[in-house]
Design a protein that fits this description.
- It is built from 23 helices and nine strands.
- Among the domains are: 209 residues, no CATH class; 106 residues, Alpha-Beta Plaits (2-Layer Sandwich), CATH 3.30.70.20.
- About 1% of the residues have low confidence.
- Helices cover 42% and strands 8% of the residues.
- A three-stranded antiparallel sheet has the order 6-7-9, with no helix packed on it.
- Helix 1 packs across helix 6, helix 8 runs antiparallel to helix 9 and helix 8 crosses helix 10.
- The chain is mainly alpha-helical.
Length: 530
């Protein structure tokens, strides 16, 4: 193992560790800390994602300024190849670590196979869908996938276990131990534990997918990076013109040690068929070579024998499949009439524009103070899977919070000033007389009105005849004042199905989604019951 080659390998490992640590720190800091402003650039990894930039540009026809950070990696890729994959990408680092944990499960790991073409087909599929307005790349984009998996499944599980353990320790009868656990809780609450013990729908499913991505590295090192990752496909296409090239001299003894340590399956053991589109610039091959037969040099790529193994027909088929999938998705019933339960976060763009931008990263759900933002499954159609919706029975939209707009990397949720956010209507509350305590039981209850946050209460009381003719005050919703924040539904003391519920009707972003009530000289101000 040569010293200068080993130094490159060590530099790569330090870079991987530093960026992975930075990623985890920023993910933990994607949380409410008592202020309505985030103190850290928590979405910087998404801002540096070339795949998000490309597909957002194609699907939304516009590009948030923050995503131009990703353009910095174009010259980096043209100089050093897929250095982002080998030196920066946090999911790539996790895959690399798991894949090399037990090498006997991945024989001949450095051989390039025809299966590598699937990542290019996946990229073209997402490009085809994006051209026709469906931003689906976030489903498999490595940064979005990792943030979503950790935020919505892994970290809530860790938080839950830590809270149970700290609570157990705090209740110990021995006072010094109890004080120790109390101090540990104070420290972790300030630096790691989430503000709210969030619980997310589909958490087990998302965890299973994440576990599968990591487990496949036991079959082939960096399985996801080599065969699935659309960002890897995009960077692989650019890296074919990269200036950093691998060359082999006459010292090679065909020992195949370079092949066995190759992280990307780039054929480092062949003089003519080294594949820059698969190489992740890990420098394992040159560091491992006992004869010093491999050298890295900068040279103009006048041509390459590197094949993407994707024929013109296959490329056009992938593009057309993505485009036709987008066409079919646009005919779903969810596009014809908004689902009542689909309450989007405040600042969300109109649904078509929202789906053209949202990368399903889960940042908005992670930062939600109350944990009310949840990943959708089919309520927005298959094209809206894992996009955010507000489930008021789980958590409400905090009146004085604008964090979800601050963390959105593509402006699918616009950043609103607090006064504008407080007037932004995301839905409308309806009282259910069959379940509302004053209506159904004739028993006074003022919980919904008491918690309504609007300056002029959107829930008022009217007297109605109760049991035995005794009048009882019942809640009614004033349409013009309700913003659909959902705190009334969240706080409703009816423990299962609330006596007051919020639907998406009346949302500011959709002029067509309106409650149509008869108007006339006697109609007065509209007030709502289910």
């Amino acid at each position: 193992m040569r010293p200068h080659a080993d130094a490159k390998q060590l530099a790569r490992r330090i870079s991987q560790g530093a960026f992975l640590l930075l990623f985890f720190v920023l993910l933990v800091k994607t949380d409410y800390d008592g202020r309505n402003e985030l103190a850290y650039p928590v979405k910087i990894f998404l801002d540096a994602d070339l795949l998000v930039l490309l597909t957002s540009l194609l699907s939304a026809r516009k590009l948030p300024a923050a995503l131009f950070l990703a353009l910095l990696f174009v010259p980096v890729t043209l100089l050093f190849g897929r250095a982002f994959c080998g030196w920066v990408c946090p999911l790539g680092t996790l895959n690399h670590a798991v894949g090399f944990f037990d090498r006997k499960f991945a024989p001949e790991r450095g051989n390039k196979t025809r299966a590598t073409r699937w990542k290019f087909a996946t990229l073209l599929f997402f490009v085809g869908a994006a051209i026709f307005g469906i931003q689906a790349a976030g489903l498999l984009d490595p940064i979005s996938l990792l943030i979503r998996s950790l935020s919505l499944s892994v970290m809530p599980g860790i938080n839950h276990v830590l809270r149970l353990f700290l609570d157990w320790g705090y209740r110990l009868p021995w006072q010094p131990a109890s004080d120790l656990f109390d101090g540990a809780y104070t420290f972790l609450r300030a630096h790691f534990l989430s503000f709210f013990p969030a619980r997310y729908e589909q958490a087990l499913f998302l965890f299973a997918l994440f576990f599968l991505v990591l487990a496949l590295n036991r079959v082939r090192t960096r399985f996801f990076c080599r065969f699935v990752c659309p960002l890897g496909g995009l960077l692989g296409i650019l890296s074919r013109a990269g200036l950093l090239r691998l060359s082999m001299n006459e010292k090679c003894t065909r020992c195949m040690q370079c092949r066995d340590v190759c992280a990307g399956g780039a054929n480092p053991h062949t003089k003519a068929n080294w594949s820059p589109s698969e190489c992740v610039s890990c420098f394992n091959c040159s560091a491992q070579c006992p004869e010093g037969a491999l050298e890295w040099t900068f040279a103009v790529a006048r041509g390459t024998q590197d094949r993407l193994d994707v024929s013109r027909r296959a490329a056009l088929s992938a593009l057309f499949t993505g485009a036709s999938t987008a066409w079919v998705m646009k005919t779903s019933p969810a596009r014809a009439r908004p689902a009542p339960e689909l309450v989007r976060p405040p600042g969300s763009r109109p649904e078509d524009d929202f789906l053209a931008r949202c990368v399903r990263c889960g940042e908005c759900m992670k930062v939600c103070i109350t944990g009310g933002l949840q990943p959708t499954l089919l309520s927005a159609g298959i094209e809206g899977i894992w996009t955010p919706k507000l489930v008021s029975r789980i958590g409400y939209c905090e009146y004085n919070c604008t964090l979800c707009g601050q963390v959105c990397p593509t402006s699918a949720i616009e950043t609103l000033a607090l006064p504008a956010k407080q007037k932004n209507v995301i839905g409308l509350a309806f009282v259910d007389p069959s379940r509302c305590i004053p209506f159904a039981q004739g028993t006074p209850c003022i919980v919904c009105e008491e918690h309504c946050p609007t300056p002029k209460k959107a829930i008022v009381f009217e007297e109605r005849p109760g049991k035995g003719g005794k009048p009882v005050k019942v809640p009614v919703v004033v349409v013009d004042l309700c913003i659909g924040c959902g705190i009334c539904e969240y706080k409703c003391p009816v423990v299962d199905l609330a006596g007051i519920r919020v639907t998406s009707i009346g949302e500011s972003r959709n002029p067509e989604n309106r409650l149509r009530l008869p108007t006339g000289p006697y109609s007065g101000s509209p007030r709502l019951f289910l």
